[in-house]
Specification:
Blueprint lengths: L5 E4 H4 E5 L16 E4 L1 H7 L2 E2 L4 E3 L1 H6 L10 E4 L7 E4 L4 E2 L3 E6 L7 H8 L3 H7 L10 H5 L2 E4 L2 H47 L4 E4 H4 E6 L15 E4 L4 E2 L2 E2 L5 E3 L1 H6 L10 E4 L8 E3 L7 E3 L3 E6 L6 H9 L1 H12 L9 H5 L2 E4 L2 H44 L4
Parallel strand pairs: 3-8, 4-7, 13-19
Antiparallel strand pairs: 1-10, 2-9, 3-5, 6-7, 6-9, 11-21, 12-20, 13-16, 14-15, 17-18, 17-20
Length: about 400
């Protein structure tokens, strides 16, 4: 039971130190630096226990930042942009301005890993404290006023030990699930590749221009995002186009006049969509008719095939196979610092294909396997979600004195 627990303000038990970014244009702040400078990328690359940072700064930069290093066992808490991200450092470091360092004032009162686990539960609460300017931002004054409940140090250590052991077991289960999920996706990709390898020698070869009625991309309406509406004509953007599936989330809408201005890129059901710029270049799917009427912006190209020659689903399977995807990506990297595929490059892109009857037979088999793969993936997703809920439940019990 939760007895003999104290409630204090976070600012009473921790010193809260905000980070900053030394001027990038000043080489004296960066070149030859040996002081760890922490950003969210370090969490993404090595997890929540920080033992080294990707970027280093110099002594001169440190002095400019107030000559203050966060000591080992400081908890790092993100209070802007990716609010609620957290980590604990095992080395002295400084952070960028997204993070605050929580430095325990008296280790006889508060255990660092107890504070770490407490911080893992703060995201929702922090978002309610956000100033909600252009992005979420929690000032130090509000952070200091967050209540933290804790028992005696011996009890904190007991709770931390239980959480450590439990979460290690959970992480092992989670890794196995993620590996199984990846395997099911890889199995489909491997099968698709095998289908192409076994048959390609007997197939015809043509460039996309010869197989298509239309190839072209659109534009962003004047005013950009601010001009989008809540209903009207769908405007498909690269974020909607994923390999072999169309993602409805964040689908934009434009008004009648804007749609008229983009009438040259009117979408039809079963158009093959290909992302032609940016990080998602070469992603491809078949456009579902349920989102009509629709247009595309300049980052997405329409390939409207001659369906008497090639099946749109078959073409999409080709373009998303490892063999053709690598070629598309290589095309997008030619002669540019930014990944982009031009209309002429897309028109001249060569593919191999069998008779229409055989295409439809292959599509039927691939669709059936794809459906099984999706069902497996959904099962793994639900299991992973259940694991995340289990972790939250265990943390709630821990901080309610029920472990």
């Amino acid at each position: 039971m939760k007895t003999n627990w104290q409630t204090k303000k976070l600012g009473e038990v921790c010193e809260i130190v905000n980070g900053s970014t030394p001027l990038r244009s000043n080489k004296d702040f960066w070149e030859g630096g040996n002081i760890d400078w922490f950003t969210i990328e370090d969490i993404r690359k090595q997890g929540r226990v920080i033992r080294i940072t990707e970027q280093k700064i110099t002594q001169r930069a440190l002095k400019k930042m107030g000559d203050r290093l966060l000591p080992p066992e400081s908890v790092l808490l993100c209070c802007t942009a990716s609010v609620g991200e957290y980590a604990i450092t095992k080395v002295p470091l400084v952070t960028n301005q997204q993070f605050n360092g929580l430095v325990i004032k008296d280790s006889r009162i508060l255990n660092p890993m107890f504070l770490f686990y407490f911080s893992s539960m703060l995201k929702d609460h922090l978002l309610t404290l956000s100033g909600k300017a252009t992005i979420d931002f929690i000032p130090i004054s509000r952070l200091k006023n967050i209540d933290i409940n804790y028992p005696q140090i011996s009890e904190q250590k007991r709770i931390v030990k239980i959480l450590d052991e439990t979460f290690k077991k959970i992480e092992r289960i989670k890794k196995n699930l993620e590996a199984n999920r990846s395997s099911s996706i890889e199995f489909f990709d491997s099968y698709l590749q095998d289908v192409l390898k076994m048959n390609a020698k007997k197939w015809k070869s043509s460039i996309l221009k010869e197989l298509s009625i239309k190839i072209g991309s659109g534009a962003t309406p004047r005013g950009g995002k601010d001009s989008y509406t809540n209903e009207g004509t769908s405007l498909v953007r690269s974020m909607n186009v994923h390999d072999r599936f169309f993602k409805e989330k964040n689908l934009a809408y434009i008004n009648e006049k804007q749609a008229k201005d983009l009438s040259n890129v009117t979408l039809e059901e079963n158009d093959v969509l290909v992302n032609i710029t940016g990080a998602s270049v070469a992603r491809s799917c078949v456009f579902p008719g349920k989102y009509l009427p629709a247009r595309v912006n300049q980052h997405v190209s329409i390939i409207r095939v001659d369906q008497d020659v090639i099946d749109p689903k078959f073409l999409n399977f080709l373009l998303t196979s490892n063999f053709y995807k690598k070629q598309l990506l290589a095309t997008g990297e030619q002669g540019s610092t930014r990944q982009a595929i031009t209309k002429s490059q897309l028109e001249c892109f060569e593919v191999e294909y069998p008779s229409l009857v055989e295409q439809k037979s292959i599509v039927k088999k691939l669709d059936a396997l794809s459906e099984k793969t999706k069902k497996l993936e959904e099962i793994y997703k639900r299991k992973l979600q259940n694991i995340d809920e289990l972790k939250k439940s265990i943390l709630q019990k821990a901080f309610n004195g029920k472990l």
